[in-house]
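Chapter review: from sequence to fold.
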Amino acid sequence: MTAVGQSVGTITGVRIAGPGSELLPHEGPFDVFLADGVIADIAPAGALAPSGAVVDGDGGTLIPGLWDHHVHVMQWALVSQRVPLGPATSAAHAAALMADAPVIEGRRVGMGFRDAFWGDEPTLELLDAATGDTPAYLINADVHSVWLNSAALRREGFESDGSGLLREEPAFEISRRLNLVDPATGDRLVQEMARDAASRGIVGLVDLDMAWNEEPWARRTRGGFDTLRVEFGIYPEHLARALAEGLQTGDVARGAASDLARVGALKVITDGSLGTRTAACSHSYPGDPHNHGLLTVDPASLVDLMTQATGGGLACAIHAIGDVANSHALDAYSVTGAVGTIEHAQLVAHADIPRFGRLGVTASVQPEHAVDDRDLTDTIWAGQTAMPYPLAALAATGANLVLGSDAPVSPLDPWAALAAAVHRTRDGREPWHPDQALDPTTALAASTHGGSLNAATIAPGALADLALCETDPFTAGESALRSTRVAATLLGGRLTHVG
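The token string follows.
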């Protein structure tokens, strides 16, 4: 019996799907032979004697291991300790949920409210009445705003405008403080998160926590973390340090016990979000003619940051949600010659869509957000002329796409992302803008490390990062795709999950 941690020599009796499968002579079944962390050979089932530890594929579908290209790891790991506020139908309801929240380290923390759907307004008086003198923190689903009671505001040293709401950078500062848990506790929660991710076929993720991420990941590998590959982001406040210390994208984290943790890209947040009504847009938000959102980094500063990063060997990951922010980000890529991604690309001007492909800028998108936000998009962005969530349009013009969750904004679940990308719906509703759906081949490729134009493959010599699925993701319907079970996940030929 194979077990987690064991290196596998042979996977027997599988269908092979995804990039590379088009080169096979028939649909299978096949046996796949692994050695030294890579795929050594593929042969018709039974043609060659198995070697080493054997995983019985039992007719399942073998695909390249999946990546989540946008995760806030610590914030996602801490969700298990936070009250879910997604069900809150009003500010009063959210406050009432917090009244019964457990007190951890002297405070109550909730996650996932969506005040854009509420009929009442969040106020300090309302939250104080429900939560009293215990500090209470309610984090918006999009993480761009936080609702605090008076006790929390005093504890954190922030003034209130009467609502208790903090937006953008002040909200991010609160999230950073809430993430500063004891390293032993945090690392345990991260390991639990990683095991859950591996159970879904994930072999790697991009960690965009708002922190200096090198040391925590090096420490985790020294403590035995070996479940996922990780590329961690660097934020502008740490750019000078990263450049001075010679960090470059792709480098192994210094002090790490393995090569699983590597330096990622410079992450720059240039505008707000849809839910907080701060995404920088060309047209105003309904009922607020002077509100076009916020550019949190001006174009000249963005060019300067990206120039510094590029000169030092760092790729870039530029958060841009509104169409104005996307235009400025593309301009900065054009001027600087930087390589990297635009994170989110939720509202893109028609003229800008071909620029992604022409400039070689990868669109790092979260398809589940389109499903989560469809009603919000149809109301708050009803007057915008740019295209919302233009996945198919981006792919059609030659852009590279990579998929992610933005956990905790959406759960870290690649099957939810794939289902949303391919079917553009959930819960039995009619598909939303089905013309922007991706075909399953493109969506699966975009869920691997290199993305839709440079997908991981199943072929001799390829890295043995693999997921064995009990259903075929290329034929599964929306609900079946979301509920896909993974029988085994392998990282470099070593089992990280056995179902």
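Two observations follow directly from the output. The longest helix spans residues 183-199. The longest strand covers residues 261-269.
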